Every structure is written in C-alpha cells, then in structure tokens.
Prior knowledge:
Elements: H1 3-20, H2 24-35, H3 40-45, H4 55-92, H5 111-124, E1 129-130, E2 136-138, H6 139-142, E3 167-169, H7 175-183, E4 191-200, E5 212-222, H8 227-242, E6 248-255, E7 258-267, E8 284-293, H9 295-300, E9 309-315, H10 317-325, H11 338-341
Parallel strand pairs: 1-4
Antiparallel strand pairs: 2-3, 4-5, 5-9, 6-7, 7-8, 8-9
Helix pairs in contact: 1-4, 2-4, 5-8, 5-10
Bound molecules: phenylalanine (PHE).
Residues 172, 174, 255, 258, 289-291, 312-314 line the site of phenylalanine.
Amino acid sequence: MGLKEELEAIKQKGISSIAETTDIKNLNDIRVKLLGKKGPITQSLRGIAKLSVEERPVVGSFANKIRDELATAISEKQAKLEAEKLNRKLAEETIDVTLPGNQVPAGHPHIIQETIDEIESIFMGMGYQVLTGPEVEEEYYNFEMMNLPKNHPARDMQDTFYITKEILMRTHTSPMQARTLEKHDFSKGPLKMISPGVVFRRDTDDPTHSHQFHQVEGIVIDKHITMADLKGTLEVMTHKLFGDKFKVRLRPSYFPFTEPSVEADITCMNCNGKGCDVCKGSGWIEVLGAGMVHPNVLKMAGVDAEEYGGFAFGVGPDRFAMLKYGVNDIRDFYLNDLRFLKQFD
Length: 345
Ligand code: PHE
C-alpha cells in the first residue's frame, strides 16, 4: 500500500470512529490519538523520506489536508455533542410553571386583633397617634392618677389582680391617659391618642365575662373640645366599623376620671334596633364608657385645666368582635381552639 492510500485509510478509520462516539471525553481521546505526535499520521509521514523529491510535497500537503479534515470533523462532532448535552439538561430540568405549588399552611390575625387593627386605622385616619402601655402597671397610674385615691369606693368597680401593693395588672387602659398627658407638649398642638391593649379583672369567667379582655383607650385634649366632638367621633367610628345606619346613643353614667360621664350604646346589629335576645329587647348594645376628662386628671398630669380640656373613651373590641361575627361566648376568644379560630380564615 502506498503512503497516500495509507493516509486515506487512516482518515476513513478516524472519520468512522468520530461518527460512532457519543461521548465528549471519548471524542477527546480520539483527538489525541489521531492528531497527536504519536498518532498514525505523524507515524506514516516517517515514510516520506523514501519518496521522490517530487512526490514529497504532494504527499505532505495531502497529509495536512487529512489532518485538517479530521480536526474539523472532531470539532463539529464536539459542538454537536455539547448541544445535545445541553438540550438533555434543559429537558431534564424543565419546570412546569403551571403545576400547582405546595400548599403552605398560613395563619391569619385573630379576629380581635383584626378588630383592633380596624379601629386603629379609623383613628389614624383622623390624625390620632397609636401608643401602647404596660400591662403590668403601677397602682399610681391605674388608680391614683385617674382620680381614684386610696379607699375610693369606685376602686371596687374594678376587681384587681395585685402583684404587690403598688404593682398590679392594669384593670383598664385609662392609665395611658395619664402617661401621655404627663409627656405631651401642648405648645406643639393638641393631644389625640388611642391606646389598644389587654386589661385584667378578677371576674369569674362566663359567656359575657373574661378575666382578660381588650380595650382601646382614646383621649383628645385641646382648647374648646366639647361633648359634641365626643359624640361625632364615636359616630364616625361606629359608621366606619359597622355601617352608616348604625346610631350612637349616650346615657349618663359615672366614672371617677370623667365629668360628665357617659355610656355609649349603638344600634343592635342582631335585630337592627327592633329588640331581640342579644340586646335584651332594648334595640341598643352598650359598647363603651366615655366622658369629658376630669379636671383633676389634667391637673395631676401637669396640664392647665383652665385652658385645656377634652374627652376620653374606652371601647371594648371583644364586644365588637362578638357582635360582628356572632360569637356568643367571650371565652371562645381566649381558648385558642383551632376549630373556633379557623372559622374566620
Ligand atoms: N376605663 C373605663 C372602664 O374600663 C372606660 C372609660 C375610659 C370611661 C375612658 C371613660 C373614659 O370601664
């Protein structure tokens, strides 16, 4: 066999082994074997010395041509194998974005918290600041500063959990009136504040009483605030919470820290004011205590009671949530029974 034929055979063998391989690593081995220094082309070119001077360049360039062809075949195959590999990878890793995702169980705010949030946003819309205070409170703020001196009979109105003689679980959010009044700088403008939170009383738990419940305290102090401002404010809250057809009624009452004091009723949402079991036939539901802040409360907090005055109120979001969602046992709010809580998803 002449040298040219030998080279032609090397090429054919190379081409078919390149065609056969399906593996990039194997293709690389083929490249080294065929085109390397110890490869068949280099080997066979050793025989070139035996050729005539005329034949040498012809066979030499033929060898180069074969080397080029093989190199081209290898790089084409390499590109093809790489493309196939990429396509396989893409196919394997395809994500079907239309498949339903894994359901992650999500919680939701407690309906009392939701009610408080609603009340907060209503009052923030009217320019009130929202502040929270300590649940473990000083007797001084809970009673003294709220115009309930020691031995005041009205202290019995609020059966108290005492921690020490001076420290107690707050029985209402009203101490936040005193705490904010003390700090407020009236030269910078009026005080408009609400304060939501938990309060505690030594009540025996039953469907309408819980030893722990919520209040949202509110206070507005400025010059020239009247009881009409109080009523208008409570009406805005009621209309936004329940709807425009709900009315607010004020009845005279007594609290040591307000004078005059009122209790506010709103139209019974169970019977729309006609009278039913829920409102005991009256058509009205009592939802809060309120009044004009007693001058003593202002004075004790260092506010000039001649110049400044205003109203305060304490609403019960538990009561609102019971009415709104038709819950007839306040204890359900505090038992954390998921069967109860999940109804309000
Ligand atoms: N603190 C009173 C209570 O707990 C409610 C109230 C607040 C009354 C503010 C008047 C003014 O019953």
